[in-house]
């Protein structure tokens, strides 16, 4: 398909917002192209973005399993961009929140504890201003919020991964199913293997099993009710899930 003004409209929306969820992206694609093949349109835009060192990347929210399309730079660390976008104190608070989430046992930080970080020497910001700032970065998907806890947002997971790898290499865990870094999910009580909740939901849909793909222990106390039914994974991720299951089956036999 020829690159058209309709492609440019999708790109402009992403440049303005930084992200689009799958449902909204599908609405735009249907309206502009009379088609619902979002991935095809995004791939066509990415062909034009490649010389500009930019990329529209598909990502999943760890809390909801919702799909997002996120515009990223392939050469610049987005944490550097924050230095011009946020104040020094806001950036100090955000870095501290990232650290608390990554080094925690469950990949989140309680909202009250989050606000108490304002009292740290490096974070000179009032709690009222901090609340406004947190609301803003949740709306912009840098953080996620649910039931009194802050989690890593889908944009941070997608855009800041080079920063996280360089800064917290020894604190990062890998999902046993999709083989990608995981901040929040489910850990097997037996072998301490980690899983994204949306990967587990897909695994259960494929194999009708809630057993750990590493040790075959039943995964208990798991709540997937908040995970979107539209948490379709990329084909390569589904292939990795199937490969993980095959490897375990061979070990078991």
TrEMBL record:
Keywords, sorted A to Z: Chromosome, DNA damage, DNA recombination, DNA repair, Metal-binding, Nucleus, Telomere, Transferase, Ubl conjugation, Ubl conjugation pathway, Zinc, Zinc-finger
GO MF annotations, alphabetized: ubiquitin protein ligase activity; zinc ion binding
Catalysed reactions listed for this entry: S-ubiquitinyl-[E2 ubiquitin-conjugating enzyme]-L-cysteine + [acceptor protein]-L-lysine = [E2 ubiquitin-conjugating enzyme]-L-cysteine + N(6)-ubiquitinyl-[acceptor protein]-L-lysine
Record Pfam families: SMC_Nse1, zf-RING-like
GO BP of this protein: double-strand break repair via homologous recombination
Transmembrane portions of the chain: none
Protein's cellular compartments: Chromosome, Telomere; Nucleus
Keyword Ubl conjugation: yes
Any one of the GO CC terms: nucleus
Residue ranges annotated for the Phorbol-ester/DAG-type domain, each copy included: 161-212
Listed SUPFAM superfamilies: Cysteine-rich domain (SSF57889)
Subunit structure: Component of the Smc5-Smc6 complex.
UniProt cross-references to PANTHER family, sorted A to Z: NON-SMC ELEMENT 1-RELATED, NON-STRUCTURAL MAINTENANCE OF CHROMOSOMES ELEMENT 1 HOMOLOG
Family (UniProt): Belongs to the NSE1 family.
The name this protein goes by in its record: Non-structural maintenance of chromosomes element 1 homolog
Organism per entry: Apis mellifera (Honeybee)
